[in-house]
C-alpha cells in the first residue's frame, strides 16, 4: 500500500492515511488526530521540527520508520524524513 499525500479537500487525520493494519499498531500512532497534516505530508515537510517532536513520543516509531523504508514512502515517518524510501533527514 502506498501512502504519499493527503487527499485534497478532506478532513482525514494522518492516522487514517496510514496502512490499515493492526500488525504494526498504527492505532497507537502519536500523530493520530493531529490537525497539522502538512508537518508529515506532503514531502518535503512544511514543519519537520513539529512532526519530529510528536514522533519522539510515539510507541511505534521504529516500526513506522521501517515501514517507510521498506515500502518507499515519502514524508515524515518515525521522526525521520523520507524521499521514496530513502532517509533524507534524521
Ligand atoms: S512515528 Fe510519527 S509518523 Fe509514525 S505513527 Fe508515530 S507519530 Fe505518526
What's the tally of helices?
3
Shape, per Cα inertia axes: globular
Bound chemical compounds: iron/sulfur cluster
Order of helices and strands: HHHEEE
**Biggest sheet: strand arrangement:** 1-2-3
Q: Helical residue percent?
A: 25-40%
Largest sheet properties = 3 strands, antiparallel
Work out the strand percent: 5-15%
Number of strands: 3
Q: Over all CA atoms, what is the radius of gyration?
A: 11 Å
**Total count of domains:** 1
Q: What structural class do helix, strand and pairing data support? A: alpha+beta
State mean pLDDT (0 to 100 scale). Answer: 83
Q: Low-confidence segments, ≥5 residues, pLDDT <50?
A: 4-11
Q: Ends: how far apart?
A: 24 Å
Structural write-up:
By secondary structure, this protein is of the alpha+beta class. The protein has one domain. It is built from 3 helices and 3 strands. Strands 1-2-3 form a 3-stranded antiparallel sheet. The radius of gyration is 11 Å and the shape is globular. The site of iron/sulfur cluster has 14 residues, from helix 2, helix 3 and strand 1.
Amino acid at each position: 500500500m502506498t501512502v504519499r499525500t493527503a487527499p485534497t479537500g478532506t478532513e482525514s487525520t494522518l492516522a487514517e492515511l496510514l496502512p490499515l493494519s493492526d500488525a504494526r499498531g498504527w492505532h497507537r500512532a502519536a500523530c493520530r488526530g493531529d490537525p497539522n497534516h502538512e508537518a508529515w505530508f506532503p514531502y518535503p515537510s512544511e514543519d519537520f521540527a513539529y512532526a519530529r517532536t510528536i514522533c519522539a513520543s510515539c510507541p511505534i516509531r521504529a516500526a513506522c520508520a521501517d515501514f517507510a523504508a521498506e515500502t518507499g514512502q515519502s514524508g515524515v515517518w518515525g521522526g525521520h524524513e523520507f524521499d521514496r524510501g530513502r532517509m533524507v533527514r534524521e
